[in-house]
Amino acid sequence: MDTQTFNQDLLDFLAASPTPFHAVQSMALRLENAGFTHLPESAPWELKAGGRYYVTRNDSSIIAFVYGTADLETQGIRMVGAHTDSPCLRVKPHPEKNTQGYFQLGVETYGGVLLNPWFDRDLSLAGRVSYRNGDGKICSTLLDFERPIAVIPSLAIHLDREANKNRTVNPQTDIPPILMQADDKIDFRELLAGALSERGVEGVDQVLDYELSFYDTQRPALVGLKQEFIASARLDNLLSCYVGLQAMLSSDATQSQLLVCNDHEEVGSRSACGAQGPMLDDFLTRLLPDTELRMRCISRSMMISADNAHGIHPNYSAKHDGNHGPKLNQGPVIKVNANQSYATNSETSAYFRHWCEMAKVPVQAFVTRTDMGCGSTIGPITAAEVGVKTIDVGMPTFAMHSIRELGGVEDAAGLCRVLRVFFDQSEVH
Average pLDDT in the 232-240 region? Predict the structure, then answer.
């Protein structure tokens, strides 16, 4: 796949994945089309060399596994990790607000949302809805309104003359989106039941609960005079999910390969389907029930944790360490932190640099300024939970955690080539 085709397919994947639930649905469909077999966690498993499998949990996390023909004990598993969630606005359980004749929904911030860019956007709503059907059975389905149904208008500068100097956003009072004008009381769950019926979901007796997030309806796009940049919501971190998936689908199946995309990274990963939960360890235990064999396999395995990195912003270059300012379209970034906010060490970094050379892809490094705090990823968590040697890498990005982030058109395809080399390597020990 050439870079132009790769990026266009990436844009389509981003557009089809407004929530972690939809991202997993999109990935599962691609895996099914590539011949992967779904493994229900509640069913017995029979994993065989040469097989291709995937398993989901909570509809929002997914593991894809290629059972290679190489011996697991001596060759280990090539692992890539990413996360499916992004900072956003989640609808509260009892969200209805009627103020001055406008129907609004109360929202809760999910993760470290950069709030100011959410104003004056055409917003839609998507996620998972759980309901009781006419037979009394509890069911769940995905819902996406797709079209713009809400907006958070800015306060006019005439009413806040200091807005360009010191306006702050109160997440409780300033960001409830407006959905319509309505003086009468509206039951949001009844509204959802109607939306499900309109979309062909039959037998909805009562909507019981939901996990719904607002998102920007503006489609992902290539921007810039030379179209050097990718502009989209959720680049952090669906971009890495896509790259890991494409690398797996296009690689040699000799070595065993695993892609894990966890939910809840943006809020600490502490959940049954998060990186700090047991999902990956559960999978490895079912793959290799014998503890001795499993530990030998893990000792010869490696994890590449792929998440976005902060590109050096031309208007704010002082926010970076002078020698560690990654640039867009100049290669993936090795992320280093002496205090283990990233799992990279000299050994895993050396491997990754070697694979970049093999793929003929440039590589960069990021270390945060010593006088600034450092974010983290699923990398250190997975390394601690599983015991696998790990490196943290990512694509340089602007506006991380904004409603619309910016990356480079060369970087995702470049990292994909590196991951293909990694997946095909006979040794990482």
Answer: 97
Kindly report, residue by residue over 163-181, the tens digit of the pLDDT. 898 889 999 999 999 999 9
- 194 and 104, same structural domain? yes
Residues of the chain with pLDDT > 70, as a percent, come to 99
Q: Which domain holds residue 208?
A: 88-216
Q: Are residues 209 and 240 in the same domain?
A: no
Determine contact, residues 423/251, Cβ cutoff 8 Å: yes
Cβ 394 vs Cβ 240: under 8 Å: yes
Residues 259, 63: contact at Cβ < 8 Å?
A: yes
Whole-number pLDDT of residue 112: 96
Whether the pLDDT of residue 427 is over 80: the answer is no
pTM score, whole prediction: 0.96
Q: Rounded to an integer, what distance in angstroms lies between the CA atom of residue 76 and that of residue 408?
A: 33
Same domain for 205 and 277, yes or no, is no
How many Cα atoms sit within 13 Å of 170 on the Cβ side? Answer: 4
User: With 90 as the cut, is the pLDDT of residue 45 above it?
Assistant: yes
- Residue 80 and residue 103 share a domain: no
How far apart, in Å, are the Cα atoms of 403 and each of 12, 103, 116? 17, 23, 9
Give the integer Cα–Cα distance in Å for 319 and 298: 38
End-to-end CA distance of the chain: 30
What type of residue is 265? Answer: E
Does any domain span residue 225? no
Residues 414 and 317 in one domain: yes
The token pair that represents 326 in the structure block: 């990654």
pLDDT in tens, 275-331: 999 999 999 999 999 999 999 999 999 999 999 999 999 999 999 888 898 999 999
CATH number, position 385: 3.40.630.10
- Give domain status of residue 72, yes or no: yes
Mark whether 22 and 134 lie in a shared domain: no
User: CA-to-CA distance for 288 and 382, rounded, in angstroms?
Assistant: 18
Please indicate, yes or no, whether residues 121 and 173 belong to a single structural domain of this protein: yes
Find how far residue 19's CA is from the centre of its chain: 9
Cβ atoms of residues 425 and 255 within 8 Å: yes
